Amino acid sequence: MKNVLVNEIDDFNNVFDNLFNQMNSLGVKLLSSISLTLGLPEDFFNKSTTKGNSLLRLIHYPPSNNENLFRAREHADINLITLLIGANEPGLEVKDKSGEWIPVSSSYEDIVCNIGDMMQLITDKKLKSTPHRVVKYKTDEIKSRYSIPFFLHPSPDTILKSVFRDDDEGVLAHDFLDERLKAIKLY
Q1: Which of 12, 110, 132, 175 sits most deeply, having the most CB atoms within 10 A of its CB?
Q2: pLDDT digits 0-9 by tens, 13-72
Q3: Where residue 98 sits, what CATH number does that domain have?
Q4: Mean pLDDT throughout 109-115?
Q5: Measured distance CA(141)–CA(122) in Å, rounded
Q6: Can you tell me the distance from the alpha carbon of 111 to that of 56, in angstroms, rounded to the nearest whole number?
Q7: CB within 8 A of 144, min separation 6: which ones?
Q8: Is 3 exposed, middle or buried (0-12, 13-18, 19+ CB in 10 A)?
């Protein structure tokens, strides 16, 4: 699928192409660190992410009164890792091991890293996918919230299988993504 081009804003496409490339580069570096932490070669993820189908999204949560406090209900990301540029408004929360919701405070200068379901799958849950949500606190002003997540995905032909067990036959990344998108009714 081709990118949607935005011609109404000068230099928009160049700026976001550059941002995509920078986030992808950062993501690959983080995956190298994760590889080493797992006792794998530093370049373990390089082949699968070289032609990955990663995604940079611009999300607008419209202004809301206090009727619906959930801007995004509890979910986990499907991909390997998500890099989130700090939002302009609070509201992101992650669920800890005991089931409590913890607010994530970040500024627009921060990048938050989140483990996704694909990483959880290949690490046999040693690295767990992070359930999270976006809420509007009752004390917040009624205004928009903007968020820019980068979802780092492997290439669709990557076999997702345990890095710890040789007997795992794995699943094709495309099939895993397709199944999950259908389960959450995104198509």
Answers
A1: 132
A2: 999 999 999 999 999 999 999 999 999 999 999 999 988 899 999 888 777 766 667 777
A3: 2.60.120.330
A4: 90
A5: 41
A6: 13
A7: 60, 61, 62, 63, 89
A8: exposed
* 174 located within any domain: yes
Q: Pull the structure tokens for residue 72.
A: 């995004």
Q: Is the pLDDT of residue 116 over 70?
A: yes
Residue 163 tokens, joined:
């890095």
Task: Indicate whether 1 belongs to any domain.
Answer: no
More confident residue, 133 or 108: 133
Distance CA 155, CA 149 (A): 18
* CA 181-168-159 angle, 5° bins: 45
In which band, very low, low, confident or very high, does the pLDDT at 138 lie, cut at 50, 70 and 90? Answer: low
Would residue 96 count as lying in a domain? Answer: yes
144, part of any domain: yes
Beta bridge partners of 160: 171
Q: What distance in Å separates the CA atoms of residue 61 and residue 90, rounded to the nearest whole number?
A: 12
- Name the maximum alpha-carbon separation found in the chain: 53
Range of the domain at 83: 12-183
